[in-house]
Design goal:
Layout lengths: L1 H23 L12 E6 L7 E6 L8 E7 L12 E2 L4 E2 L2 H6 L6 E8 L4 E3 L4 E3 L11 E6 L2 E6 L9 E8 L3 H10 L4 H10 L3 E7 L18 E8 L10 E10 L5 E5 L9 H4 L46 H29 L3
Antiparallel strand pairs: 1-2, 2-5, 3-4, 3-6, 6-7, 6-8, 9-10, 9-15, 11-12, 11-13, 13-14, 14-15
Helix pairs in contact: 1-6
Amino acid sequence: MKNTLLKLIVILILLMLFIVANNTVYAAELVDFSKAVVTVTYSDDTHLQPSLTITGVTFNPNNGYSIQYTNSATATLEESKWHSIENGKSQDGELMELLPLSEDIYVWFSEADTEEIYEFQTPIKLEKPSQLPLGQRISAVFTTIGSNIKFSELPGNEPRNIKYKIGQVKDSNLLKILKENGTSKYDELLNFSKNTNESKEGIADLSNFMDFTFTDINFVNNGYYFVYLELDTMDGKYIPLYDIGLYQAEVDNYGGYILNNTNGFGFEWKIDDDISDGDDKTNTENVIGNNNTTENTENITQPNNTQNQDNSVISGKLPQTGTENLVNILIIGALIAISILFFIKWKKYKIM
């Protein structure tokens, strides 16, 4: 009987501790989003399916979390624009619309428990990821009857014109560098395109790819050509998006042509057979509209660490966890005291 009573007392104490622990593990405080790190991640090799990933904080699985985007740190939040966070990530169409724009992006957080929704009043400025390397942003096939252009960077939702420049590459030294190094040396191809005086420029309407042709150019069969493409920024509304590619012309007996990209079907290196060294000497005239060719290779976004954690004001009332914990502790203490007193009385008077 003595051992049975002791076991009952121990079980009672453990049960009470378990109940208090489950009620207070996450009740102490809300997530401190000033410590959050927000980054843009992608599901594949393109930059077409972005997600916002939040790390640096521990989420309470019993609560719900949401984010909202604005273009300033003082914007008014809108109830209809919150996007849910699942497993530390948020993927939504609004992020796809905002990333191509030149304006800033601020990320706001909210946390909801069973009683309240708390909006954190200090947002984090999202650092946009850099674009893919040259040669990987825009891919295309050009033919006599039209063109097929695909973007690996988000072009935005509005139809925009595209500026182009095309010219033949006859410098075998440059071609050999490109053959051996691929797109990693496309900065040299870009510099070549900026300075050559043997090229054609124009503007194409991308609303109909079939109208984008080079029928006024006499292509050389198996000749190599650069094509520079640059989307209209619409007076600075969009981040500049441009790319350059190396193509090989395939010409039939009737004058029809296909320009095959180095990454596509139909391209075949023949520089050892039909290209002479140093054929195309260039001048220094810059004929490409976009003069900024500096490539930013930093892809990881970081939070705005200049914010003061003490200034993070949360709307709504905080949970009264201190009072609740004190009551639970007093209840446990009383139960333990009663159990011990009962055990002493039993031992003295053998009442059971």
